[in-house]
Amino acid sequence: MPELPEVETVMRGIEPVLTGRMLDAVTVHRYDLRGGVPTDFIARTQGAHIRRLARRGKYILMHLDNAHSIVMHLGMSGRVRLYDDAHDYISEPHDHVFLDTDAGARLVLQDPRRFGMLYLAGHDDWQAQAPFSAMGPEPLGNGFSGPALHRALAGRKSPIKTALLDQRVVAGLGNIYVCEALYRAHISPLRPACSLSEAQAGALHEAIVHVLRDAIAAGGSSLRDYKKADGGLGYFQHHFRVYGQTGTPCPSESCGGTIEHCVQGGRSTFYCRQCQL
DNA sequence: ACGAGAACCTGTTTGC
DNA sequence: TGCAAACAGGTTCTCG
């Protein structure tokens, strides 16, 4: 479900409630998320204070004061629900993990498909561990630029659509925002990644930054599972120009084309072959 | 070494 | 109407 804008929105929603709090009670109803929740997860987190929250790509990190950091990924269907008062908690199917704070709040990790991940990394060396060690730059950070993207795409023969989904090229993009960014940059998803000129990589960089910023400002995109931690909906889905828009006219004024659908690497691609070259 | 495809799951939508 | 197939925001493993 969640790409960078959704994860960022979730993190912003839970950050003020969790920062500085102690994990009073940690409950794990299911350990069989992707990769498995460590068997000692409760022992290593309960009683610790949360120093700081951060996001890297699609991962949320909760840095604790005991040398561990909680690493959370929402997979395809993961959701976080935050109750300011745990007494208000209403059980829902697939509620796998609770984090209860000393201030009485409860964070719930809910994930029907269980593609999500929850594990621990070293507070100081998490960046040196997979997947972070090989992860590309933050698209909204200083390390990401047109030239940097151009370099990352050099030698890649796979379609640019597929390359952008590779978190080693740039962090945080998923199927929606890749389609949307390529449309905004007027670049065909079918083109070999290495065929982009420096100028086109620059345009793509701009498009990625803009679409992500706009999506964060809108609170992400709510399609099926995704909601904000407070239960509210994101509304960027109303701004999709190509994603899920098969058969509708290209939103570009003078284009006159129609949005088409194809499959690349097993994932749906949406684009306009008239104005994406 | 790289890229395509499958696998991992459940829920919802689509099509016969 | 009913059932089966297809599909869904992601990552990771295997195979060619």
Could you characterize the architecture of this molecule?
The chain is α+β, with helices and mostly antiparallel strands and 277 residues long. Strand 3 (59-64) and strand 4 (68-73) form a beta hairpin. The protein has helices at residues 4-18, 41-45, 146-153, 160-165, 175-184, 198-217; strands at residues 23-28, 50-56, 59-64, 68-73, 79-83, 95-101, 106-110, 117-122, 259-264, 267-272. It has six helices and ten strands, in the order H-E-H-E-E-E-E-E-E-E-H-H-H-H-E-E. The chain binds a DNA duplex (16 and 16 nucleotides) through residues 1-3, 6, 34-35, 58, 73-78, 93-94, 111-117, 131, 156-158, 162, 165, 167, 174-177, 220-221, 223-226, 265-268.
By secondary-structure content and strand pairing, the structural class works out as alpha+beta
The gyration radius over C-alpha positions equals 20 Å
Kindly state the number of beta strands.
Answer: 10
Largest sheet: 4 strands, antiparallel
Distance between the termini: 28 Å
Specify the number of helices.
Answer: 6
What characteristic shape results from the CA principal axes? globular
What percent of residues adopt helix (DSSP H or I)? 10-25%
Order of the strands making up the biggest sheet: 1-6-7-5
| Contiguous uncertain segments of 5+ residues | none
Write a brief caption for the model.
By secondary structure, this protein is α+β, with helices and mostly antiparallel strands. It has six helices and ten strands.
List keywords for this structure.
277 residues, alpha+beta, four-stranded antiparallel β-sheet, 6 helices, 10 strands, 22% strand, globular, DNA-binding
